[in-house]
Design goal:
heterodimer; A: about 325 residues; about 0% strand; B: about 350 residues; four-stranded antiparallel beta sheet
Chain lengths: ~325, ~350
């Protein structure tokens, strides 16, 4: 099977997975007790008023009609209107989603870059004081709750050193009228980004570091490492070009999953740093039974995971010549 | 002309229990272009001896005494960096047991050959280095276009040939072949050995062939050294070791391999296990397994003694070799070891 055929098949799979995911999402939310009106009794003083609202929202239609309507919406790239804000969900949610993506990608890039290098060094220096200390530090970082790391960082950089802003996203963060580049590429925004991104990075660094160390220990036993040393190549070449290059393979999958998890897991960091991201909005919308917003938030996160997995599979083709198109 | 002289080398491994004497008082010489067979069971120190030449040893290895002279340079005196740049692969390359695992799976074989050429030789372009790899492939009977293949696309025998290409790409003066054919089936084994011999002659490289299989070295080596318990117990030219060995261990080793001539004869193995190398104490290390051990063997470490020309043996009873040789061919001799030898306090293996 050729490369092109493989990719086409993989795309078809991707579409199917997305469809299954969307269906599951729809069913789950209809199974949640109550509807968007139940939380706000005050707004609907009479049962008639309430029913009228339910009808407005189309919630009295049979489920399959709602389902088809929902799929149609998604295909048009719409998420409907928020039942709470009574505004189009997409306008509401995209800037928030973008804020989260910028924050979490920064955190993950730092976490995986340093985690991989650090883990590789730990594996290479097996049994050294560096490795033992590294494992302890990594486990501490992994076991510390994100909010605690966040609070400690705030205490150091905001209250002790006074060099970074405490929270928020900067003066222009919330404005939708600005173009995306201007919004994110300015000193004020970057200063606001440092602490939350660092919090995420510290928390997420442990997984790649430990995984990398473990696979390194395996790879270092391989005969080819000996041969590369015997070839007289410098240690750094053997370490990074051969040992680490082979050890990084299992991490590709982990990156894909971690990216999705980070989108959802950002809610704590967003809360600590008052970051206007999608995580907080998602939690709020679920408690309000604001289906369109909640579903859109879940949809974006889930899609991120699915797409990242697809990217990971393609990355394997490039990274590991032994992978066959099957 | 002598290429390599190992003189009184003591390469020990530090361990919690003390030094593990993996290579003890090793003295060897290797002429240019010649092949030395290092024979012995696993744990006998043969690999340690070979690898100490390129210092490819675990971190806890330590040269306690002795020197390794490679064409006038004492390798034990070189810094790691000098060793990497001047000796490794440039002068001394290596063929591992399993070639398939000897290549990094994520790069093509060609890329790996190009990498090592360009690391050691300044100013060679990628294209030139690749052409050299192709030429080598051609000489070794592999389609030159296969330099662009990944290791997993090769068969076992092909991979071993590709490995030989890698080992030869800098025209080293010494090749360390560590059980280069053990992982292959018998028919291919022979062909690979022939190929190695041919290439070795063409490039005028010396070789140290490490194996547990005495029949492999008898065909390929000019000289054979037999290792036991971290020491070289006997060394001589190949014919002498095969026809006229003097050390009881060599006698036993010869018995343990089938002779194609009389194939219905059952093999005779040497009873017991290799000795503990932490603090082995005085006495011959083979004594606990030796059917001919006498009191002296348990108490005094035998000194190397030279018989004929270059036939060096570490055994108190080497003088009586002619009688022992006929005894060693008998099965009973080896079966009675346990009762026949007085078991002294130190016990040997238990």
């Amino acid at each position: 099977m050729g490369l092109r055929e493989y990719i086409v098949r993989r795309i078809l799979q991707l579409v199917f997975t997305l469809w299954a995911f969307v269906t599951l999402l729809f069913v789950l939310f209809r199974m949640v007790p109550g509807d968007p009106t139940t939380r706000f009794v005050m707004e609907y003083p009479t049962p008639e008023a309430r029913e009228q609202r339910v009808e407005e929202l189309g919630l009295n239609e049979p489920l399959y009609v709602q389902y088809v309507e929902y799929l149609g919406q998604l295909l048009r790239g719409e998420f409907g209107d928020s039942t709470h804000y009574r505004e189009p969900v997409s306008e509401l949610i995209f800037p928030l989603f973008l804020n989260t993506v910028v924050l979490m990608f920064t955190a993950l890039i730092i976490a995986y870059t340093f985690g991989v290098l650090f883990g590789a060094a730990m594996g290479w220096l097996r049994g050294s004081r560096f490795e033992r200390g590294g494992i302890v530090a990594t486990l501490v970082a992994r076991s510390s709750p994100e909010f605690w790391i966040g609070v400690i960082l705030v205490w150091i950089f905001v209250f002790q050193l006074g060099v970074l802003p405490r929270s928020g996203i900067g003066a222009h963060g919330g404005e939708l009228t600005m173009n995306v580049v201007d919004r994110y590429v300015n000193v004020d925004f970057l200063r606001h980004l440092i602490l939350p991104a660092l919090t995420g990075a510290i928390y997420y660094m442990a997984t790649p570091a430990l995984l990398m160390r473990n696979t390194m220990l395996e790879v270092l036993k391989a005969d080819f490492i000996e041969i590369k040393k015997a070839e007289g190549l410098p240690e750094r070449t053997v370490l990074y070009k051969h040992a680490a290059r082979n050890s990084v393979l299992p991490l590709v999958t982990v990156v894909a999953i971690a990216t999705g998890a980070a989108m959802g897991g950002s809610v704590i960091i967003e809360t600590v740093f008052n970051w206007p991201g999608i995580g907080r909005e998602m939690v709020a919308s679920v408690t309000r039974n604001d289906y369109p917003v909640a579903m859109a938030a879940f949809f974006l996160m889930g899609t991120a995971v699915i797409v990242m997995n697809f990217v990971a599979d393609l990355a394997y083709l490039y990274l590991d010549p032994r992978v066959k198109y099957e | 002309m002598t290429l390599l002289t190992i003189d009184g080398l003591q390469m020990y491994y530090r361990s919690e229990a003390g030094y593990v004497r993996a290579a003890d008082d090793i003295t060897l010489e290797l002429e240019r272009g010649q092949t030395l067979g290092l024979v012995g069971e696993s744990g006998s120190g043969k690999t340690t001896i070979a690898r100490s030449i390129i210092r490819l040893l675990p971190d806890n290895a330590e040269v306690v005494d002795g020197s390794i002279d490679f064409d006038g340079t004492d390798i034990t005196e070189l810094t790691d960096r000098e060793l990497r740049n001047q000796i490794r692969w440039q002068e001394v390359s290596m063929i591992p047991q399993n070639a398939m695992n000897g290549f990094d799976p994520v790069y093509t074989v060609g890329q790996q050959i190009v990498q090592v050429i360009r690391h050691h030789e300044d100013g060679v372009s990628k294209a030139d280095a690749k052409d050299r790899a192709k030429t080598l492939f051609d000489e070794l009977g592999i389609d030159p276009d296969r330099v662009d293949d990944y290791p997993h696309q090769f068969s076992g025998g092909m991979a071993q040939r590709a490995m030989i290409a890698l080992a030869l790409c800098l025209e080293p003066r010494l090749i360390l072949a560590d059980e280069p054919t053990t992982a292959l089936d018998v028919v291919i084994q022979d062909r690979i050995l022939d190929t190695i011999k041919e290439m070795q002659a063409e490039y005028d490289s010396a070789m140290i062939l490490i194996t547990h299989d005495i029949s492999v070295v008898s065909e390929t080596s000019d000289r054979i050294a037999v290792c036991y318990g971290g020491r070289i117990v006997e060394q001589a030219d190949a014919a002498t070791i095969i026809k006229n060995p003097r050390h009881p261990y060599t006698l036993g080793l010869r018995n343990a391999f089938p002779d194609i001539g009389d194939s219905d004869e059952e093999l005779i193995s040497i009873p017991g296990t290799p000795p503990e190398l932490v603090d082995p104490g005085e006495g011959c290390r083979f004594a606990p397994r030796c059917p001919f051990a006498e009191e002296e063997c348990w108490d005094v470490t035998p000194e190397p003694e030279e018989y004929d020309d270059g036939h060096i043996v570490e055994c108190h009873r080497a003088d009586e070799a002619d009688e022992l040789r006929s005894l060693a061919e008998k099965r009973e001799t080896w079966m009675d070891t346990d009762e026949a030898t007085p078991t002294p306090a130190q016990g040997g293996d238990d």
